[in-house]
Amino acid sequence: ILNVEQSPQSLHVQEGDSTNFTCSFPSSNFYALHWYRWETAKSPEALFVMTLNGDEKKKGRISATLNTKEGYSYLYIKGSQPEDSATYLCAFSGGYNKLIFGAGTRLAVHP
Amino acid sequence: EAQVTQNPRYLITVTGKKLTVTCSQNMNHEYMSWYRQDPGLGLRQIYYSMNVEVTDKGDVPEGYKVSRKEKRNFPLILESPSPNQTSLYFCASSPRGGDHEKLFFGSGTQLSVL
Fold first, then answer.
1. Per-position DSSP letters for B42-108, written without gaps between them
2. Fewer CB atoms < 10 Å away: N or C end of chain A?
């Protein structure tokens, strides 16, 4: 059974803090790793899709890295703002057009 | 505006009463999928469709049906809902369903089965 683990489960930070969280996934049969941002009462929105070992992606203050050999990806948020409060989901693809999602990291940024 | 539209947003029903949750996308996407989201678990795939008239089971298909008669629509049918189907449901689509393609999600349907 393929498993995708995200840690921590939840995180509270102060405005201006930088933070990071982890997605662990199987290191075999890797096709892609997705990150989504899900605000309460809204649709999950794609942040990044990463495909190559060593990939780094950046979107504003949010960036992500990928290590397919050891099976992990980090998501970083620099200078957190209250509007960054959301649940961050990662999803692993081992092929066959199938994504396996982690349970998410819930981030709360306090003013 | 490019979007995936789900209806209804909230639904309360009773055990055994058939219901349909609609999903429509206006991006001409070939791939559509249904997920359910339960506390403490990741999104789990119920059914997916690679194109019109092509559907397949995901990880948790029991108790659900789908159809894909037109490219834009992918309704989820619960013929005889049970309380264990109380969940948050998301429809999603992507251009061709490739592993590298990002998913576009609907706004979700919160279903309660009493």
1. --EEEEEEEETTEEEE-S--TT-EE--SSSSB--EEESS--GGG-EEEEEEEESS--TTSPPEE---
2. N
Kindly state whether A25 is in contact with chain B, defined as any CB-CB distance less than 8 angstroms: no
Bridge partners, B16 (sequence order): none
Q: A-chain residues within 8 Å CB-CB of B31?
A: 97
Q: How confident is the prediction along chain B (114 residues), in pLDDT tens digits per residue?
A: 889 999 999 999 999 999 999 999 999 999 999 999 999 899 999 999 999 999 999 999 999 999 999 999 999 999 999 999 999 999 999 999 888 899 999 999 999 999
Closest by CA position to A44, among listed B21, B107, B40, B26: B107
Q: Which of B95, B90, B86 is nearest to B107 (CA)?
A: B90
Residue A67 CA, distance from chain mean position: 13
Query: For tokens 């970083």, what's the residue?
Result: A76
Nearest one of B45, B56, B51 to B92, comparing CA atoms: B45
Q: Are A43 and B31 in contact (CB < 8 Å)?
A: no
